[in-house]
């Protein structure tokens, strides 16, 4: 299975790329923002392409030709402001979904946010982020893609425990980025 990892230079994306690379069942292509990032990964023997989530659906589709699945781990980052959050976390995600349908990719994994589906539980300090994740998730649900939405709690940079809780309405909690990455790879074929 050929997989495009969007956000492959992020903290979760890097770990997903490494896990996929270690499994002979998968072939990975990293979707990155800069030539420098591409060079770093190609130096390690990883196929990498420059992509722009603010580009057109057609431009994004060109980066995923031949891919069977897409993993969306990208995000605008916590310090970019509401405008970038909407452009990357919402519109960028939707364009990646449209591109996936256009090229015939059938599997889509979305990294969202805990309680993104429940407006009553949104953190007011990062409300634009929740709005973006909420509507990106809804668009994915309404698409023709076979999808899984992963809504992790607070992300930690600690070693994984290998224990995750899966459910629709979980209380706030924390999870290591390593465990999120392993969960993504585990659900890929489900």
Automatic annotation (TrEMBL):
<dbReference type="Pfam" id="PF13460">
    <property type="entry name" value="NAD_binding_10"/>
</dbReference>
<feature type="domain" description="NAD(P)-binding">
    <location>
        <begin position="7"/>
        <end position="190"/>
    </location>
</feature>
<dbReference type="InterPro" id="IPR036291">
    <property type="entry name" value="NAD(P)-bd_dom_sf"/>
</dbReference>
<protein>
    <submittedName>
        <fullName>NAD(P)-binding protein</fullName>
    </submittedName>
</protein>
<dbReference type="InterPro" id="IPR016040">
    <property type="entry name" value="NAD(P)-bd_dom"/>
</dbReference>
